[in-house]
């Protein structure tokens, strides 16, 4: 597991829980992203699987993949709430069980399906929205005649 920022607590706790259950898992947490630690590429290459839980759209995993050419599975959360240790624990179990990629793909599909009705609704609202407000017929007639309230 590799992380940075606010994911430190949940990743650390999930790793401790996993180790107490006899699961071999390591946790590296970056303090700075620039410069990255000199030995980070060597450390990442020692592990058959590297997972990066991130509170964004996976930018850390993208940077690490590009810089070190290591396969890193990104697990993202963008709902505005921090990861929980239980969520990271499920990520660890899924990574070890070989189902993490499927779970992330399902999550992406569900997000897209959820967004589709919203996009459709917004599109319909744009078609129904008046371009400019027209005054009622009575008001138009009063304006033409010069009558005032």
Automatic annotation (TrEMBL):
Residues 136-149 have a biased composition (Basic and acidic residues). One of its GO terms (biological process) is response to oxidative stress. Gene3D superfamilies: 3.40.50.920. InterPro entries: Pyruvate:ferred/Flavod_OxRd, Transketo_C/PFOR_II. SUPFAM superfamilies: TK C-terminal domain-like. The lineage of its organism: Bacteria, Bacillati, Actinomycetota, Actinomycetes, Mycobacteriales. PANTHER family: 2-OXOGLUTARATE OXIDOREDUCTASE SUBUNIT KORA, PYRUVATE-FLAVODOXIN OXIDOREDUCTASE-RELATED. It comes from Mycobacterium kansasii. Residues 121-149 are annotated as: Disordered. This is Uncharacterized protein.
């Amino acid at each position: 597991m590799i992380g940075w920022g606010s994911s430190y607590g949940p990743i650390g706790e999930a790793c401790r829980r996993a180790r107490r259950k006899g699961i071999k898992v390591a946790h590296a947490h970056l303090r700075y992203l620039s410069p990255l630690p000199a030995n980070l590429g060597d450390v990442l290459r020692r592990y058959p699987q590297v997972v990066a839980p991130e509170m964004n759209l996976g930018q850390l995993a993208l940077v690490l993949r590009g810089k070190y050419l290591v396969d890193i599975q990104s697990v993202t959360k963008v709902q505005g709430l921090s990861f929980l240790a239980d969520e990271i624990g499920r990520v660890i179990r899924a990574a070890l069980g070989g189902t993490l990629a499927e779970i992330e793909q399902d999550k992406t599909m569900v997000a897209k399906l959820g967004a589709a009705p919203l996009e459709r609704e917004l599109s319909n609202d744009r078609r129904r929205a008046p371009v400019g407000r027209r005054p009622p017929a009575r008001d138009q007639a009063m304006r033409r005649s010069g009558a005032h309230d």
